[in-house]
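Practice problem 4.
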């Protein structure tokens, strides 16, 4: 009887670890519904079968000109089951101070942004949006822990809704690594 109890006590932590891993393996971005920049629900489950780039954006950042390349990339690949989703965030030196209306106007007027933009969220800290908790925590995404380093960090999501790559903020949307991932 002691051996059975010993075996069971050794086996339980393994099962808990396996269960946690399976839980993370089964999670995708499809479990989230976010709010678009106009305040309407945007179900990420509607993106099944598409490759997705999720990027946190800001209007008053040295990297803001990336909007132009993001839009060009979106125009080039949108008909090939690829989509970009922008999430304005004011987490870095107050570089996205505007309202959703101001952000939408800025993006349209200055960069002709036509890819979906969401309502402003927090991508770090205690107010971090649940989607970004998923993107940055291995126990939720099953792939890797990461930290949003700055505005315009890119998260590349597979056609199955799983995190595949994290691309640094200064890496341009037109970088060969990104384009190759889209074309694979």
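Answer key:
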């Amino acid at each position: 009887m002691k051996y059975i109890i010993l075996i069971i006590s050794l086996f339980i932590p393994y099962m808990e670890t396996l269960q946690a891993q399976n839980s993370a393996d089964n999670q995708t971005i499809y479990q989230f519904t976010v709010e678009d920049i106009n305040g309407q629900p945007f179900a990420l489950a509607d993106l099944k079968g598409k490759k997705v780039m999720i990027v946190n954006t800001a209007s008053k950042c040295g990297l803001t000109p990336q909007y132009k390349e993001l839009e060009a990339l979106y125009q080039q690949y949108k008909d090939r089951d690829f989509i970009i989703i922008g999430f304005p965030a004011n987490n870095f030196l107050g570089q996205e101070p505007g309202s959703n209306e101001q952000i939408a106007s800025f993006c349209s007027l200055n960069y002709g942004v036509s890819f979906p933009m969401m309502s402003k969220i927090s991508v770090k800290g205690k107010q971090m949006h649940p989607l970004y908790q998923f993107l940055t925590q291995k126990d939720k995404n099953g792939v890797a822990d990461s930290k949003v380093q700055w505005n315009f960090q890119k998260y590349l999501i597979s056609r199955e809704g799983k995190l595949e790559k994290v691309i640094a903020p200064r890496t341009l949307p037109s970088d060969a690594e990104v384009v190759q991932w889209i074309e694979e």
